[in-house]
Design goal:
single chain; 348 residues; mainly beta; Methylamine Dehydrogenase, Chain H; 2 domains; four-stranded antiparallel beta sheet; 47% strand; globular
């Protein structure tokens, strides 16, 4: 565009300078050529600063260490009369602000909590029905299931919450997790299944797996995506944890008996190392499984401070967040010995 403007500017100036008589003899300008001075351009680009790239390295959760309570987040906000019932939780880093987002079933709302200008602040987004599960779509967007309304709500986190859009679905979906590149895996009670949806709510595929001749899904209320793209399902109807491929193949099914048996599995997540954390609401435990679904230990118990745990997540700094349904707060634990650091600051 600059060269185009220059052409017309040169032509107008030339006509004015030489006059119509000279123009007839010498002719109009046929072209204007721009010759790039590469040395000047390179020097200018070397000195040009468009911004900074900040790389945040995730701190690995040390699952061999003993968890230590770091914080308790009270999710009650003004003018709420119903008891608190946090179901699911996740953490986002938005504009360098660590933001905890939780679904509150009894108060039919999604809430965010964060610290800004050294003050603890919150945002509340009311729903037209109780929200259950949530999943990250991007660094600042979430998808939330509202089963009673047959909808999935897309929420933007700024870190205050903004309703962006609503996906109307043909069924009531409870658990939800995002799959790359742009699909959702959702759980349903009737008929029990995990469906793969596009972002308009169309069912791309329905998964109702059998394991040893038995159906292994009944109440798939919590889902999570592993680092390898598989789907973890926590099912409190069949009291098992299932790992599925997006195509519907069973990678493993964890349903032990005896001391390690599950009684009411709820929230589930996987770490950057592939380890799996699942809560048991009835046994008051957070359980550590290997990537292949083998029991390691009860990483948190009632004696360690958890009662009726539901949703669970791990943030980029290696902190573990657990929803406590009967007590109402979110408890934050750490069991990592490494320091969080930010490096690779670069200029563009």
């Amino acid at each position: 565009m600059d060269v185009y403007e220059m052409y017309h500017g040169c032509e107008a100036g030339y006509v004015e300078a030489v006059g119509d008589a000279d123009l007839k003899e010498r002719g109009r300008i046929a072209s204007v050529t721009f010759r790039q001075d590469t040395d000047k351009l390179n020097k200018a680009l070397d000195d040009l600063q468009l911004g900074e790239i900040e790389v945040l390295y995730e701190s690995v959760l040390d699952l061999k260490a003993t968890p230590v309570l770091q914080d308790t987040i009270d999710i009650k906000v003004a003018d709420e009369r119903s008891k608190l019932n946090p179901i699911d939780v996740t953490v986002l880093v938005v504009n360098d602000i660590d933001t905890v987002v939780v679904t509150d079933w009894d108060n039919s709302s999604v809430k965010s909590f964060y610290v800004k200008n050294k003050q603890t602040q919150h945002s509340k987004l009311s729903m037209d029905g109780p929200p259950l599960s949530l999943t990250k779509l991007t660094y600042n967007r979430l998808a939330v299931t509202v089963p009673s309304r047959n909808k999935i709500v897309i929420v933007e986190v700024n870190p205050d919450l903004v309703l962006r859009s609503t996906i109307t679905t043909s069924k009531q979906y409870v658990g939800i997790t995002s799959l790359p590149p742009s699909t959702l895996a959702v759980g349903s009670h009737s008929a029990p299944c995990v469906n793969i949806l596009d972002m308009t709510g169309n069912v791309l595929r329905s998964i109702s797996p059998l394991h040893k001749g038995n159906r292994i899904l009944q109440y798939p209320d919590f889902l999570s995506t592993t680092m390898t793209g598989n789907i973890l399902v926590s099912d409190c109807g069949t009291n098992c944890v299932v790992c599925l491929t997006p195509e519907g193949d069973v990678v493993f099914s964890y349903s032990p008996t005896g001391d390690t048996a599950l009684k009411c599995p709820q929230g589930i997540t996987s770490t950057v190392t592939g380890d799996i954390l699942v809560t048991d609401c009835s046994l008051h435990r957070v359980i550590h499984l290997t990537e292949s679904g083998q029991f390691v230990r009860n990483i948190l118990t009632e004696e360690g401070g958890v009662t009726c745990p539901a949703g669970v997540c791990v943030d980029p700094y290696g902190y573990m967040y657990v929803c406590l349904r009967t007590e109402g707060p979110i408890k934050v634990f750490t069991c990592n010995h490494s320091q969080v650091y930010v490096s690779d600051l670069a200029y563009m």
